[in-house]
Write a structure and sequence with these properties.
The complex is a heterodimer.
Chain A lengths: L2 E3 L4 E5 L4 E3 L2 E3 L6 E6 L5 E7 L5 E3 L5 E5 L4 E6 L8 E8 L7 E3 L3 E6 L1
Parallel strand pairs in A: 2-12
Antiparallel strand pairs in A: 1-4, 3-9, 5-6, 5-10, 7-8, 8-9, 10-11, 10-12
Chain B lengths: L4 E3 L2 E4 L5 E6 L6 E7 L5 E8 L2 E4 L8 E4 L6 E5 L8 E8 L9 E2 L3 E5 L1
Parallel strand pairs in B: 2-11
Antiparallel strand pairs in B: 1-3, 3-8, 4-5, 4-9, 5-6, 7-8, 9-10, 9-11
């Protein structure tokens, strides 16, 4: 069965610093992978997704993620954090052959200090 | 093209009452998913519906919870005889197809508080 683990429920960075949010997946088949962002009291918005092809995926707001099969990882990065990046971030993987329902990680709350 | 619309945004119910949560998918989307987010937790899948059909309800509690997606109108998540433990944010997502690599678009959620 597919699963997703996000290391670190809270990450705090200074404005302008590198953002690194970790996601590891467990899957018996090559996965599709998603990163979603949730701002306070809002729904989830897709940041980026990996399906096939290039392993470095660029998303919105300057975020990117690299699919590393050998490490079963899909870590999210951004070179320079902005105050507006403060939010909760979720990594997700589809539950295969079950119509696209998503399995989410526990979430990582990102705080950005001035 | 309006996004996924959920209402109400906030719902307060007393223990024992019924809660009805509505979700209108994006135009052209026939696949609807409901998720629950408990405090300090990630989203957990509840149910997957297509028009007039429940495809997967493996995440639904066995009692008090039901969902429907009629031919006309929004999808409804119904919770009967609510208890304090039902307090959570309930999110609906829709997609045009039910395939694994298709982005799901989320609504803003309904935050249910049981008092």
């Amino acid at each position: 069965a597919q699963s997703v683990t996000q290391l670190g429920s809270h990450v705090s960075v200074s404005e302008g610093a590198l953002v690194l949010l970790r996601c590891n997946y467990s899957s018996s088949v090559p996965p599709y992978l998603f990163w979603y962002v949730q701002y306070p009291n809002q729904g989830l918005q897709l940041l980026l997704k990996y399906t096939t092809g290039a392993t470095l995926v660029k998303g919105i707001n300057g975020f990117e993620a690299e699919f590393k099969k050998s490490e079963t990882s899909f870590h999210l990065t951004k070179p320079s954090a902005h105050m507006s990046d403060a939010a909760e971030y979720f990594c997700a993987v589809p539950s295969y052959n079950q119509g696209g329902k998503l399995i989410f990680g526990q979430g990582t709350e990102l705080s950005v200090k001035p | 093209n309006a996004g996924v619309m959920q209402n109400p945004r906030h719902l307060v119910r007393r223990r024992g009452q019924e809660a009805r949560l509505r979700c209108s998918p994006m135009k052209g989307h026939s696949h609807v998913y409901w998720y629950r987010q408990l405090p300090e937790e990630g989203l957990k899948f509840m149910v997957y519906l297509q028009k007039e059909n429940i495809i997967d309800e493996s995440g639904m509690p066995k009692e008090r919870f039901s969902a429907e997606f009629p031919k006309e109108g929004p999808s409804i998540l119904r919770i009967q005889q609510v208890v304090r433990g039902d307090s959570a944010a309930y999110f609906c997502a829709s997609s045009p197809t039910g395939t694994d690599n298709t982005e799901a678009f989320f609504g803003q959620g309904t935050r249910l508080t049981v008092v």
